[in-house]
């Protein structure tokens, strides 16, 4: 049987499962808050590139025997800065991300090949392994989340202004260029959190999909953010709980729920647009 | 004796915008020099000239995005700084992304406090009120909750006017705000700007390549050509003699049914788009 209630309840009582759920809830919140601006700024591909480098950082950390969380954050932030530095022109950004992403992925594969430890740890970086998260990594994750959320609260209005209306924002004295950098770093940190929970390959399903779904059903930035948080939480928490009993990789459920929400929102959004 | 005019000889400052001996040059290329200009509160000044004559650069100077190469400038009684709250800015119409998560109401709200740090949870009722007033003043209440990207160019530009006026500015800088609008909307948008400056004594600097849509509203013209310029009423500046001198070639100014047509100079009329962020 794919879903066994009693077994799920037993597993939910375990410390490691509860730790995983806390990590997931924190990630859902961060991804939901950051996501709508990522979508508005058309940064989906940058998020993907950043997450690949978070994977590289995580793999390097694994090899060196330090916390994977530190490595992932370092890799993602470096990636964000590198992409900001190399891809200053819009026309170039796309190809710069492609080039950096490919190199980072290759480097990560090398690190994993050199790593003598358990194969499950390697797989975890790519497809997510929240159940295995260590208490120290959980604290790194929570600390990063707090940094991202506090920064988002402080910068929210200028960031929104610079994202939706950059010319006027600049004329009104918003330091748009500096904010681009700051936001890239925040996205890098949020991505690194995602790598630990859903893995590098599937970060998009929590950062982009819920926000893209929300944008289909509301044009209010505030409502879009609240919806994106709700969608991300449902996907990540629901995905973990459902995956417990059958022992299926978490990512499969998380991405499926996330995508289902997206499809429903597209359908709802379409019928609403027809009315308007 | 030098031809240099000392600061003491220059006319005293007055008005909402004041330039004294202002010079702007990129390397060897001088856009304008020795520019003295005072724009009174409530005055409507049209800034005309071919592309590359420094119209947009003038906007950038007043917005504090571009320092002068020489001379001084004051806007609303202070040197321009980034994010001067007493300046409103209307850009040229550029279609917003249809998928943008943004309503007209939000666009206007950003004009009020989009530059402020923090979430702005305090004073939300007052904020909502001011945004609603600004929307009503441009007749945009009806579509304030529609996704901004789905609105027509004219509707978006009305929102731009509300966005610029919601902060109650003393100086309104308009950078080709009528570009790519149809005649009816050109009329609506320029009338809204005109009503504001009459009601609140707001000085208006209006960059345009086409004077006719705003001709009845214009008090004075600043005409820039290739480092030369002339300031005066339309009747003084828009003459064959003055423009021929500015363009250094024979230019014919023809008046037909209250409209002014400039014939003969290359680059007198152009439609190329540009905006403040581009030539940074």
Question: Number of helical segments of chain B?
Answer: 7
Low-confidence stretches of chain B: 269-275
Query: Which bin fits the share of residues in helices of chain A?
Result: over 70%
Strand arrangement, major sheet of chain B: 5-6-7-3-8-9
Distance between the termini of chain A: 46 Å
The CATH topology annotation of the domain at 9-201 in chain A reads as ABC transporter involved in vitamin B12 uptake, BtuC
Give the ordered list of helices and strands of chain B: EEEHEEHHHEHEEEHHEE
Mean pLDDT of chain A, to the nearest integer, reads 87
Q: What is the CATH class designation of the domain at 13-93 and 171-263 in chain B?
A: Alpha Beta
**Terminal Cα span of chain B:** 38 Å
- The shape of chain B is globular
The general outline of chain A is globular
Organism (chain B): Saccharothrix coeruleofusca
Domain ABC transporter (chain B): 17-251
Pfam family, one (chain B): ABC_tran
GO molecular function (chain B): ATP binding; ATP hydrolysis activity
């Amino acid at each position: 049987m794919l879903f066994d209630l009693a077994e799920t309840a037993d597993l939910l009582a375990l410390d490691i499962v509860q730790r995983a759920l806390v990590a997931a809830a924190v990630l859902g919140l961060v991804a939901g808050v950051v996501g709508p601006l990522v979508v508005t700024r058309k940064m989906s591909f940058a998020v993907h590139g950043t997450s690949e480098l978070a994977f590289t950082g995580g793999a390097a950390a694994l090899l060196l025997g330090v916390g994977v969380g530190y490595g992932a954050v370092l890799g993602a932030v470096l990636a964000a800065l590198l992409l900001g530095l190399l891809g200053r022109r819009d026309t170039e950004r796309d190809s710069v991300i492609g080039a950096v992403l490919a190199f980072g992925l290759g480097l990560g594969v090398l690190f994993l090949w050199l790593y003598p430890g358990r194969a499950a740890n390697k797989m975890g970086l790519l497809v997510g392994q929240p159940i295995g998260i260590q208490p120290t990594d959980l604290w790194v994750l929570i600390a990063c989340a707090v940094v991202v959320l506090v920064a988002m609260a402080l910068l929210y209005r200028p960031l929104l202004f610079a994202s939706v209306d950059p010319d006027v924002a600049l004329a009104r004295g918003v330091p748009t260029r500096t904010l681009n950098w700051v936001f890239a770093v925040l996205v890098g940190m949020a991505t690194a959190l995602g790598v630990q929970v859903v893995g590098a390959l599937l970060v998009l399903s929590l950062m982009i999909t819920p926000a893209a779904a929300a944008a289909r059903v509301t044009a209010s930035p505030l409502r879009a953010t609240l919806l994106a948080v709700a969608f991300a939480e449902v996907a990540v928490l629901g995905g973990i709980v459902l995956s417990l009993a059958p022992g299926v990789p978490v990512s499969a459920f998380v991405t499926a729920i996330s995508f289902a929400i997206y499809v429903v929102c597209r359908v709802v959004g379409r019928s609403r647009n027809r009315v308007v | 004796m030098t031809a240099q005019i000392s600061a003491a000889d220059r006319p005293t400052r007055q008005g909402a915008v004041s330039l004294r001996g202002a010079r702007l040059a990129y390397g060897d290329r001088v856009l304008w020099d020795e520019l003295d200009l005072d724009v009174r509160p409530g005055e409507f000044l049209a800034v005309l000239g071919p592309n590359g004559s420094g119209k947009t650069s003038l906007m950038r100077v007043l917005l504090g995005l571009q320092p002068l190469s020489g001379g001084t400038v004051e806007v609303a009684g202070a040197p321009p700084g980034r994010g001067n709250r007493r300046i409103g800015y209307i850009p040229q119409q550029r279609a917003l992304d249809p998928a943008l998560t943004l309503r007209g109401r939000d666009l206007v709200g950003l004009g009020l406090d989009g530059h402020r740090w923090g979430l702005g949870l305090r004073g939300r009722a007052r904020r909502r009120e001011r945004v609603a007033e600004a929307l009503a003043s441009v007749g945009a209440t009806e579509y304030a909750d529609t996704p901004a990207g789905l609105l027509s160019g004219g509707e978006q530009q009305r929102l731009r006017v509300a966005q610029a006026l919601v902060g109650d500015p003393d100086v309104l800088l308009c950078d080709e705000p009528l570009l790519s609008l149809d005649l009816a909307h050109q009329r609506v948008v320029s009338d809204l700007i005109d009503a504001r400056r009459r009601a609140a004594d707001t000085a208006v600097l209006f960059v345009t390549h086409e004077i006719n849509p705003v001709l009845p509203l214009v008090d004075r013209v600043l005409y820039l050509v290739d480092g030369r310029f002339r300031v005066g009423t339309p009747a003084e500046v828009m003459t064959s003699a003055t423009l021929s001198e500015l363009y250094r070639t024979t230019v014919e100014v023809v008046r037909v049914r209250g409209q002014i047509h400039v014939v003969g100079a290359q680059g007198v009329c152009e439609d190329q788009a540009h905006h403040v962020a581009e030539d940074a």
